[in-house]
TrEMBL record:
<feature type="binding site">
    <location>
        <position position="17"/>
    </location>
    <ligand>
        <name>Mg(2+)</name>
    </ligand>
</feature>
<feature type="binding site">
    <location>
        <position position="81"/>
    </location>
    <ligand>
        <name>substrate</name>
    </ligand>
</feature>
<keyword id="KW-0067">ATP-binding</keyword>
<dbReference type="GO" id="GO:0004765">
    <property type="term" value="F:shikimate kinase activity"/>
</dbReference>
<comment type="pathway">
    <text>Metabolic intermediate biosynthesis; chorismate biosynthesis; chorismate from D-erythrose 4-phosphate and phosphoenolpyruvate: step 5/7.</text>
</comment>
<feature type="binding site">
    <location>
        <position position="120"/>
    </location>
    <ligand>
        <name>ATP</name>
    </ligand>
</feature>
<feature type="binding site">
    <location>
        <position position="35"/>
    </location>
    <ligand>
        <name>substrate</name>
    </ligand>
</feature>
<comment type="similarity">
    <text>Belongs to the shikimate kinase family.</text>
</comment>
<feature type="binding site">
    <location>
        <position position="59"/>
    </location>
    <ligand>
        <name>substrate</name>
    </ligand>
</feature>
<dbReference type="InterPro" id="IPR000623">
    <property type="entry name" value="Shikimate_kinase/TSH1"/>
</dbReference>
<feature type="binding site">
    <location>
        <position position="142"/>
    </location>
    <ligand>
        <name>substrate</name>
    </ligand>
</feature>
<dbReference type="InterPro" id="IPR031322">
    <property type="entry name" value="Shikimate/glucono_kinase"/>
</dbReference>
<dbReference type="Pfam" id="PF01202">
    <property type="entry name" value="SKI"/>
</dbReference>
<keyword id="KW-0460">Magnesium</keyword>
<keyword id="KW-0963">Cytoplasm</keyword>
<feature type="binding site">
    <location>
        <begin position="13"/>
        <end position="18"/>
    </location>
    <ligand>
        <name>ATP</name>
    </ligand>
</feature>
<keyword id="KW-0418">Kinase</keyword>
Amino acid sequence: MTPSRIILMGYMGSGKTTVGRALAKDLNMPFYDLDWYIESRMRKTVKQIFDERGEDGFRVIERNMLHEVAEFENIVVSCGGGTPCFFDNIDYLNQQGETVYLKCTPEVLHKHLSMGKTVRPLLLNKTPEQVKTYIEEQLQVREPFYSKAKHTVDVTLMDNYEKIKISVAKLK
Ligand code: S3P
């Protein structure tokens, strides 16, 4: 798949960044991780933005930065987990390129997130049990947005990112 923009979406811990970076390298296309782009443009971490402006403030910045990134052509983009679920972002993303939902069960997401070292503001100050319930509940709310992506790859049983990357690259 070599369209002008490949846009990866899915819940935190689904592998968007790892897969996107590897895919971009293979396809020789620049890679943009939306969170990293926000951090470099704002000169603040996502956590600092959440602390200073709350989630609502972060979502406004996220939408604005998304529109900036989407100006670029021939790119691979990994969105933040919430990006498609606010404003009209999902429709906008579908207009901008080939959107791919990396779908995963709450159990596997929970496993990935408990192994990861990245600070995720939405999961801070929660016990592992609370995180599990939170993921399950949030996925139900977000699934209708994610499922509007043009392509879905079920990554639940894919035990390494290489396999996921190959599946995404094969999409037509
Ligand atoms: C969020 C996911 C994060 C980041 C922010 C909010 C979410 O990105 O944008 O912490 O609402 O799911 P990742 O999915 O890359 O962790």
